[in-house]
TrEMBL record:
SUPFAM superfamilies xrefs: SGNH hydrolase
UniProt KW Flavoprotein keyword: no
Gene3D superfamilies assigned: SGNH hydrolase
Protein name: SGNH hydrolase
Pfam families found in the cross-reference section: Lipase_GDSL_2
Keyword Cell membrane applies: no
A single MF term (Gene Ontology): hydrolase activity
């Protein structure tokens, strides 16, 4: 069993676009970015919408009591990235009406931020992430290919995504972030800017099936998230974070145990200083 006290974490919470561990995915890039400084915990669940996320959160996020008892790995940051499935056109079982989608996102944020929440985690920075655009023709082609792969059983899949609807859910995420004072990574417009337009044919190169990002799409997300983190919380720069385990060349051959104790103590001292600075900012 891994120790929950050795190192803090960054939690990626979302749907299948978060879940991906493929080469170039957000989880892979973030793990490399925070290598040996923070664990990157992937809590992405394919097919989930925000209704499902409310239930899943209760299992994947430690309560305040668990954390204060030392039974949970502290999280320095959480990304909350939903909307791609909520935005299924009305009639699809994953569809969540826009007003409920906003309310669900707000509930997730307040579960982390509110002192009245049993999951309150004051040291955790929260980032909302908007869903990317969709390319409907590619999405439907991928649906049909999978349907044929499984023997064309049942009714043929119908086009379940609409660009205008997806954009509404992305913009609702951005607007909610402004209302709550939570930083938002606007992936929708980030992809559109990288593509040079919102035209379906221009967006297609960032999505391997019209819905899920490919490595090029994730590169846009990762670079945007890095910029957001360094702008909002410069103390989260990996270059500023000490490694809880010493660099191999810094280990004292005569007394290696002392080197390990010193590295861990320095990491904990840094965490304590950052925590105090954050509390001071909150009081201002």
């Amino acid at each position: 069993m891994a120790s929950c006290q050795y190192i803090d974490s960054v939690v990626l919470f979302g749907d299948s676009i978060t879940q991906a561990w493929s080469d170039g995915s957000l989880a892979q890039r973030m793990s490399e970015y925070y290598l040996r400084r923070l664990d990157v915990v992937n809590r992405g669940f394919g097919g989930y919408n925000t209704d499902n996320a409310l239930s899943a959160f209760e299992s994947v996020w430690a309560t305040r009591a668990e954390r204060e008892a030392g039974c949970a790995q502290p999280a320095r940051l959480i990304t909350i990235w939903f909307g791609a499935n909520d935005a299924v056109v009305e009639g699809g079982w994953q569809h969540v009406p826009l007003d409920r989608f906003r309310a669900n996102l707000e509930t997730l944020v307040e579960r982390v931020r509110s002192p009245h929440s049993k999951w309150y985690s004051p040291q955790t920075r929260v980032v909302l992430v908007s869903c990317p655009p969709v390319v409907t023709a590619d999405r439907h082609a991928a649906q049909m290919a999978k349907w044929r792969e499984f023997g064309s059983k049942g009714a043929a899949p119908w086009p379940d995504r609409d660009p205008a609807t997806t954009k509404k859910y992305a913009m609702a995420t951005v607007e909610l972030g402004k209302t709550l004072g939570v930083p938002v990574l606007d992936v929708y417009h980030g992809i559109c800017e990288a593509a040079g337009s919102e035209k379906q044919e221009d967006l297609a190169r960032f999505l391997y099936d019209g819905l899920h990002l490919n490595s090029e799409g994730y590169a846009v997300v990762f670079e945007g998230l890095k910029r957001l983190i360094l702008r909002e919380w410069p103390e989260m720069d990996p270059e500023s974070l000490p490694m809880p385990m010493p660099y191999w060349a810094d280990i004292d051959k005569a007394d290696p145990e002392a080197s390990f104790k010193t590295a861990l103590a320095e990491a904990r001292a840094y965490e304590g200083k950052v925590g105090k600075d954050e509390r001071k900012r909150e009081e201002l």
